[in-house]
């Protein structure tokens, strides 16, 4: 995963959400999507890959290339956990993801 931008966008509903882009996930392989040179949606995530690439058609893990922007829907205060195989592969709202399981505290719409 090499995402330079994770952006938070206001969600219309509450509740925990999980997106798993690892082997065995229902979002991978034949259910996956290839988004490149355009913007698309994956199970509620908006992926802007106009200058990057997102590919979850693979069988092992999703590929996020530099330039892809992932918009994560959130509502109100929450904690966002980002897991990756390697640290420093992304930023969320300008904060570098410094660990393989990074927790980001979001305090509500005033942050957007």
Structure description:
The strands form 3 sheets. A 6-stranded mixed β-sheet has the order 3-4-7-1-9-10, with no helix packed on it. Strands 2-5-6 form a 3-stranded antiparallel β-sheet, with no helix packed on it. It is mainly beta and 112 residues long. It has strands at residues 3-10, 34-36, 39-42, 45-48, 53-55, 63-64, 69-74, 78-83, 90-92, 95-96, 101-106. The two termini are 24 Å apart. It contains no helices and 11 strands. The model has no long low-confidence stretch (mean pLDDT 82). Helix content is 0%, strand content 42%. It is globular and about 35 Å long.
Question: Layout of SSEs?
Answer:
Elements: E1 3-10, E2 34-36, E3 39-42, E4 45-48, E5 53-55, E6 63-64, E7 69-74, E8 78-83, E9 90-92, E10 95-96, E11 101-106
Parallel strand pairs: 1-7, 1-9
Antiparallel strand pairs: 2-5, 3-4, 4-7, 5-6, 8-11, 9-10
In short:
It contains no helices and eleven strands. The protein has 112 residues and is mainly β.
Features:
112 residues, mainly beta, six-stranded mixed beta sheet, three-stranded antiparallel beta sheet
Rg, alpha carbons: 13 Å
Q: Which regions are unreliable across 5 or more consecutive residues at pLDDT < 50?
A: none
Count of runs of 4 or more consecutive helical residues: 0
Measured by DSSP, the beta-strand proportion falls in 35-45%
| Global structural class | mainly beta
Number of strands: 11
Helix percentage range:
under 10%
Separation, N- and C-terminal Cα atoms: 24 Å
Q: Provide the spatial order of strands within the biggest beta sheet.
A: 3-4-7-1-9-10
Shape designation = globular
Largest sheet: 6 strands, mixed
What order do the SSEs take from the amino end to the carboxyl end, as H and E?
A: EEEEEEEEEEE
Query: How is the quaternary structure best described?
Result: single chain
| Mean pLDDT across residues | 82
């Amino acid at each position: 995963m090499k995402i330079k931008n994770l952006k938070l966008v206001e969600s219309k509903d509450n509740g925990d959400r999980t997106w798993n882009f690892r082997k065995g996930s229902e979002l991978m392989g034949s259910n996956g999507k290839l988004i490149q040179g355009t913007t698309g949606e994956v199970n509620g995530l908006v992926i802007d890959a106009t200058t990057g690439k997102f590919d979850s058609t693979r069988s092992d893990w999703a590929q996020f290339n530099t330039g892809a922007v992932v918009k994560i829907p959130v509502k109100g205060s929450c904690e966002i956990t980002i897991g990756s195989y390697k640290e420093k592969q992304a930023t969320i709202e300008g904060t570098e993801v410094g660990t393989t399981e990074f927790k980001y505290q979001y305090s509500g719409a005033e942050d957007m």
